[in-house]
Amino acid sequence: MFEAVIFYVFAAILLAAGLRVITARNPVHAAMFLVLSFFTASGIWLLLRAEFLAIALLLVYVGAVMVLFLFVVMMLDINIERLREGFWKNLPLAIVVGGIMMAEMAAVLAGRYFGVAPRPRALPADYSNTKELGRLIYTDYAFAFEVAAVILLVAIIAAIALTLRKRKDTRYQDPSLQVRVRREDRVRLVSMPAEKDQ
């Protein structure tokens, strides 16, 4: 009973934070509400006994992605009014996508309450969901995991290629010239007379 109360409290906070992410006028406030929603989703994962996913959500999204979001938002000069111009134009598509997502969630919950969904099996005391997740990723879903890794690698290379710009005033090193350098090119020996005591 206590877990159910905590779950509904966390779910309410998650919904409110998610709503504020898309309705907040300030991008920094929206990013902070997104951090709150990630923390709350991590708490829900902990309630569902998925500790690895909860910690991964905190480390990857809150620790890395949100720091990047906040850095970009604070460093760029974003025109808020210009960003909000297309809000009403995209609202019908957003309502359709949101309606489809809510229908899918309602179908999943209705299946559980009406007995269509299978009941979860009882787990032994020494069960580790992290170990089971690793076993599934590297056996049953190894091909999908490798495809996702290749897609992420291509995305990283594309991001580097798109942002790489050569400028005339940029100084860079040429390793071949550094290897071919001679001592006479870099060091000048100066002969100075020794000092004499007076």
Describe this protein's structure.
The protein has helices at about 1-25, 25-45, 50-75, 80-85, 85-115, 130-140, 140-165, 175-180, 185. Helices cover about 70% and strands about 0% of the residues. The protein contains 9 helices and no strands. Among the domains are: about 1-80, Four Helix Bundle (Hemerythrin (Met), subunit A) (Up-down Bundle); about 130-160. It has about 200 residues and is mainly alpha-helical.
Question: Any descriptors?
Answer:
198 residues, mainly alpha, Four Helix Bundle (Hemerythrin (Met), subunit A)
Characterize this entry briefly.
71% of the residues lie in helices and 0% in strands. It has 198 residues and is mainly α.
**Biggest beta sheet attributes:** none
Note the gap between the termini.
Answer: 97 Å
The percent range for strand residues is under 5%
Assembly state (oligomeric):
single chain
> Based on helices, strands and strand pairing, what is the structural class?
mainly alpha
**Rg for CA atoms:** 28 Å
Number of helices in the DSSP assignment: 9
The CATH architecture of the domain at 1-78 can be given as Up-down Bundle
Helical percentage: over 70%
| Arithmetic mean of pLDDT | 81
Described by the principal axes of the CA atoms, the overall outline is: elongated
CATH class of the domain at 1-78: Mainly Alpha
Uncertain segments: none
Order of helices and strands: HHHHHHHHH
E-strand count:
0
Going by CATH, what is the homologous superfamily of the domain at 1-78? NADH-ubiquinone/plastoquinone oxidoreductase chain 6, subunit NuoJ
Question: And the CATH topology of the domain at 1-78?
Answer: Four Helix Bundle (Hemerythrin (Met), subunit A)
